[in-house]
Design brief:
The complex is a heterodimer of chains A (about 350) and B (about 220). Chain A has helices at about 5-10, 15-30, 35-45, 65-70, 75-80, 80-85, 95-110, 140-145, 160, 180, 195-210, 225, 230-235, 235-240, 250-255, 275, 320-345, and strands at about 50-55, 85-90, 115-120, 125, 135, 135-140, 150-155, 175, 185-190. Chain A is an alpha/beta fold. In chain A, a hairpin with a 2-residue loop joins strand 5 and strand 6. Chain A is globular and about 95 Å long. Chain B starts with a helix and ends with a helix. The relative contact order of chain B is 0.17. Classes of the chains: A alpha/beta (about 350), B mainly alpha (about 220).
Chain lengths: ~350, ~220
């Protein structure tokens, strides 16, 4: 079964070439590729072997996996599991204990140098990494063992990409992202808390179709999905441009659907595709549901200055007490300067 | 990261330096020794106070005699000062910050008004720089303080316009640059000629009071 092509497998399931082409058209559109590449993608997909993916879960809440599995779009995100061979995923596989360990080693050996290593969860490195273990092994040692044999690493979710919530101050476990541990492998960050399933699908389809990773931004995120901000694509942006802002979550402005900037929306500084791909089968996204963007796909979003409900215009000032001390210091310095001047001038 | 720094530690340090500097300057001036006035006062205390208060306003317009010479500079200065006032106290994000710090707010001006005010302010600032660079007397009078103060005022206006238009660079980068430029202004404010923000009206008041004491016209 492993050697059959994706085309063979889809044909066996009664999936037509036309269906694959339609899927490729949707994917090229999602990846911001020229429509002319859709037939190429479809042909490449049909001829491709199923891509081996080894998925390791580290210091995480399983929210990323839940989101990816519970997506309501089987024609896209669900179907991606037909294009790949998910050879190891602790939460999904039937095997457990030593059998699971054996499965992992067999998968790694059989696909050495070719498999995609998917990571969700941060990697705790404090105190030798003892804060998260799998089968008695630290996350950091597992990552260091299995990364060298991977063709590339997918850091799925903000925790794997940047450390995420476990890294939030005071970061007791020394949580870091994959790119802080592995420096010599191609890494794709797919941040989000949770990440958008279609983004993972897009990256996988691109890799399977073209044999390389998609173009990335300076934070190693796929440009096609993270090239613009939530704000740039937000349907409420016209209200921002008009200066119409909701002042509270239940005022007239909020009921009119005005911009949530003043309520702390981080859309202007958050790169993600929520506003275009949306969630729950394209139903809506947080801003559409009346809440500002938290900026969950950006590094250190949990510790951002001022918190979730302080507007981007504001920040964290020194506080009145410190300002008072500064004023007293200033008065003392001024008095000293004046006294010195009095002594000089008769 | 840059934005996070600007909205956090950068803002805190800049605010503390500004507060220390402002109180340092104000205390230093207020506690200076003043020569005792031995001559009898020409006017009673109330009249002297009134003289000081009136001078605060009368000095806002140059004497008619000087108009031909100073009108261009004064007009341009008024444009950018009024523009800055409109931007600072009429722009929605700025009112939001004032509300977050002091708990008071007022209705904001339409964004279009702020954009026009910003454009005029920027143009006036550039014109004033050109005038300073080309005017023979101003060339002699200008110091590094003048040019640094000009730059420190120019940058927040320029980055604010870029941020408002969201045309060059990402919003986060532009916002960070805008906030950092404001923090530079906050840091420099007490130590250069920009301190006139706090001293200009007090200085006029003291001058008017002293003139009224002597019975001189203000």
């Amino acid at each position: 079964m492993r050697d059959e092509t994706v085309g063979d497998m889809l044909g066996r399931r009664g999936f037509s070439r036309r269906g694959l082409l339609k899927f490729a058209i949707a994917m090229t559109s999602s990846l911001a590729l020229p429509p002319s590449l859709a037939p190429v993608m479809a042909a490449n997909l049909a001829a491709a072997r199923r891509q081996s993916v080894i998925w390791l879960s580290f210091q995480e809440c399983t929210g990323c996996l839940e989101t990816l599995l519970r997506t309501d779009s089987p024609t896209i995100a669900g179907l991606i599991f037909d294009f790949i061979s998910l050879d190891y995923q602790e939460s999904l596989m039937a095997a457990a204990g030593s059998a699971a360990e054996l499965t992992l080693r067999q998968a790694v050996a059989a696909n050495a140098g070719k498999y995609l290593l998917a990571i969700d969860g941060s990697i705790p490195v404090a105190d030798g990494g003892v804060y998260s273990l799998t089968g008695g092994r630290t996350n950091v040692s597992m990552l260091q063992e299995f990364a060298p044999g991977a063709a590339a690493i997918l850091a799925i979710g903000t925790c794997a990409a940047y450390g995420g919530i476990p890294k939030a101050f005071p970061n007791p476990t020394g949580a870091v992202g994959v790119e802080d541990v592995i420096l010599d492998k191609p890494i794709v960050n797919i941040p989000g808390c949770p990440p958008i399933p279609e983004v993972l699908s897009g990256v996988l389809v691109y890799f399977v179709s073209f044999g390389r990773l998609p173009d990335l931004d300076d934070q190693k995120r796929p440009l096609a999905y993270f090239g613009t901000t939530i704000h740039d694509q937000c349907y409420r942006k016209p209200f921002y441009d008009q200066g119409k802002f909701a002042k509270s979550f239940d005022d007239e402005g909020a009921r009119q659907g005005w911009c949530l900037f003043e309520l702390g929306c981080k859309g202007p500084t958050t790169h993600n595709a929520c506003a275009s791909l949306k969630w729950n089968d394209g139903t809506s996204f947080p801003i559409e549901s009346g809440h500002g963007c938290l900026g969950c796909s950006e590094p250190d979003f949990w510790d951002q200055e001022g918190g979730f409900y302080t507007s981007l215009a504001g920040g964290t000032g020194p506080g009145w007490r410190n300002a008072g001390i500064a004023a007293a210091t200033g008065v003392a310095l001024g008095a000293a300067a004046a006294i010195a001047a009095r002594r000089k001038v008769p | 990261m840059l934005l996070s720094f600007a909205r956090g530690p950068g803002m805190q340090v800049a605010a503390l330096i500004m507060v220390v500097g402002m109180f340092w300057r104000l205390a230093g001036i207020l506690l200076l020794r003043r020569r005792a006035a031995h001559a009898a006062a020409r006017n009673p205390f109330g009249a002297r106070l009134l003289g000081g208060a009136v001078t605060v306003f009368t000095r806002t317009i140059p004497r008619r005699t000087f108009w031909p010479r100073v009108a261009p500079g004064v007009a341009l200065s008024y444009v950018f000062h009024v523009g800055l006032f409109i931007i600072l106290f009429g722009g929605a994000p700025h009112i939001l910050i004032i509300h977050e710090i002091f708990g008071v707010s007022w209705p904001d001006l339409p964004k279009g008004v702020i954009v026009v005010a910003s454009g005029l302010t920027l143009a006036a600032l550039i014109a004033l720089l050109v005038r300073r660079l080309t005017h023979p007397v101003l060339q002699l009078l200008s110091t590094a303080d003048d040019f640094l103060s000009w730059l420190i005022v120019f940058l927040p206006v320029a980055t604010g316009i870029l941020l408002s238009g969201e045309t060059v660079g990402g919003y986060g980068t532009l916002l960070a640059l805008h906030i950092l430029s404001v923090e530079a202004l906050m840091i420099w404010l007490p130590f250069g000629k920009l301190m006139h923000v706090a001293l200009v009206f007090a200085g006029r008041g003291v001058l008017g009071y002293n003139f009224a004491r002597k019975g001189a016209a203000t």
